[in-house]
Sequence to fold (201 residues):
Amino acid sequence: EVYCEGNIPFSGEVYCEGNIPFSGEVYCEGNVRDLHRLTGWQPCNILYFGDQMYADLAEPVLNQGWHTGAIIRELEREIELLNSAEHQHNMFILKELNNLIREVQRFLPDPTAVHYTDLWCIERKQVRAELRRLHISEFCSSFRTHLMPTLFYRRLSRFAEIYTSNLTNLAHYHPSHYRFTPVRQDLPHEISGNSGMLDND
Fold:
């Protein structure tokens, strides 16, 4: 942990006052002023990880301008659930049903369209109930409730640019070449890649 206030010095095996060969070494404690002074790093070049959203990440984001990442150990169990065959199967069916319902409603009030819309809505409700059952058995998701992100995730997205269950997961990405680029989420009024022109009517 690097302390944002105070003058607590760094400690480490090869630390000596005024000369910290940071590369390849591990240090603990320390303070922000000495970190910038001894390394010459700019805030935009620092990626800081913590496992406490407010205690670790809020200060570096709001007052230091650092990039931040969160360590969320509960994520490992959730990813295990999301990758299960049962969850994957239900998610595939739910997405297909959503697409079918959207497409067939263009032909309303045709009786055939009404019939299939009703059938698929019933099946969609059953699939959603099954997905809810899977998550309830694991004390629910920390990140999503139905279609909406949870309050926890909203706070997380404010204070962390990336998150992972274990810091060692980043060993698979070369720090000099890999870039974590955000995924663009289309808003309801925007055109997605596979849709046509918007209709103002």
